[in-house]
Amino acid sequence: MKDVVKESMPKKDYQRIAVALVVFGIISSIMLYAGFTSAVVVSKMDKFWVDINLPYGFTISTVLIVLSSISLVVAYVEAKKNKVKLVSVFTGLSLFLGIAFGVSQFKAWGELVEQGNYIADKIFFDYGAYGSEYTLLKDGKEIYFDGYDYYLDGKKMSKEEVQEIKGFLHQIAGDKLRVDLAPYEIENYGKPYSIKNVEKDEVLQFENGKAILGGEPLSVSQRDELFKFAFGVYHDMPFFMLKGRYGEDFSLYLNGERLDFEDRKLYFPERELTVEEIQAIKKTVFQGGKEYEIKNGKVYLEGKEIPTEGFETYFDLNKGIQVHIKNGKWTQLRQELNSVQYGEFYQTGNVASSYVWILTIVHFIHVLVGLLVLFVLFIRSLKGIYNKENQMGLVVGGVFWHFLGFLWIYLFVFLQLIH
Q1: CATH of 12-120+347-418, one of 1.20.120.80, 2.60.40.1120, 3.40.605.10, 3.40.50.2300
Q2: pLDDT digits (tens, 9 = 90+) for 264-275
Q3: The overall pTM is greater than 0.90
């Protein structure tokens, strides 16, 4: 009986299969990210959107992952030259840069969280916003907050005075995340700081560990409102849930339109309309007993086009923006949000932050797998496994790590553009 000789599969075939499996996983990941990024684009054009200023750490991490990929390519080249020691040096360098990438990413995402970008939270610090339920008094004079700074007698308060305010309110908010119904321990109340209830225009009193308003102790819900007020000021969130200055650290969009913020109010900005925006307007305007039709950037009266030179009119777009036409110039007027839009703003969650968190979690899973791959490559390279006869692990692991690099660069550019 003849022996049956079984031919083993060539190494190149193993390599092709391994690469094909990695590519299949890559395509699946690309489809997942494509779905998420498409959802982000759609969400930005719908209702309120927070434009986040991305930390500089993301730029650093981008450089690190590119260098890590380059190092892995060099390791592959050295393996083909049979320089085994150099292979371990460059795989080790790639692993080090990969870990540095992960650390820089972690710190950058941490900065976003410190700024108030939580996974599911509102934009507006509801119920605790300064001036909504309570304001502060200093020596009986009301302290005004414009959304950025605190003022007393029309003068901006110093950083030292703001720290005094925070220290005073820390006695109410403490370091807790929710109201504590324990008795209050307030020192030097009214000397100089005290708290006024806006609705009743009455100064709170503290007696025997209780806060008194209108002769009665505060109810549980009122204590919660007082806590949120103190919490917001102490944690630099007296109006927005987000920390920082509007326009520098973050800004808001409504229906794709960037809003101005001034004196605790939101406005559609004044600006000239683009040609595309003008062409998209279709509106009927009644003026002086006549009916004008505006469409495709032209004005019609009784079906006949009239020159816009010397013509002037105002009209509202569907999203609450007022447009002024005068002598052929189309201008969007500065206009404060209406009550309905403010109502939506008070209740709207920070969708942008939620998407960032989702993308982050998925991205970090990929990065952890990638770092594990780099670690395995490094250990195997120390054993001298990769040489001119065998580079399969470097090829397969390299394809996956390079994909992570391209994936992060795509995410980085996308986040920069969308924000």
Answers
A1: 1.20.120.80
A2: 889 988 888 888
A3: no
